[in-house]
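Hey, resending since the last one bounced:
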Amino acid sequence: MSNPINKIVIADSQFLIVESLKTLLGNENRFMLCAVVHSCSELVKVLEKELYGLLITDISLFDYEGIEDLQRIRLRFPNYSVLILTNSISKAEFNDLSKIGIKNIIYKTAERDEIFAAIDAALRGRKYYSDEILDMILEQGDNKLVPAEPTHLTYSEIKIVRLIAGGMTTKEIASQKNISFHTVNTHRKNIFRKMGVSNASELIMNAIKAGWIDNIEYFI
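The structure tokens again:
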């Protein structure tokens, strides 16, 4: 009996990563790449056409407004497995992903064999984390999830905090995220109010304490 063909959808905006995955999957007869998508609306349309499969995505470099978008997709298409393939992930992000049932996360620096091991684990409903993720988990104590951060910021707001910490102006953030200046300014005011800060310096110090940005990178 021949092995079943596993359907895969890629949701990622990094050209080289997407092309590499297309090549890797194309050389394996047991996988069928159904689509490569670049927006949430496009992703939903594709998932509606397929009965089941695997979604490979990057929570940071895709058209998600926040982790809530990925959660809604998981609730709507529960038969799909999800593999997060990312450049980096913070403790807060890991905790948020864990809360919505994401248990397969690897870095984009992974070797070929690790990528396929993660794909196989996801398709079988088993956990798979790259060594970097495992190290982060172990730092928090054996078999413990990363503690929830004391904040009510959305995932999208945290991303804006990082851009502010990187020295970007409101206009530059609006351009990068392809949203209006007014929208970014509203996010900024809400972030300052939620964090109880009055300026960018206080915001950045709180962001460092929360683990959203690396203090070494910031002070360099």
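The chain has two domains: 6-139, 155-219.

Sorry for the duplicate.
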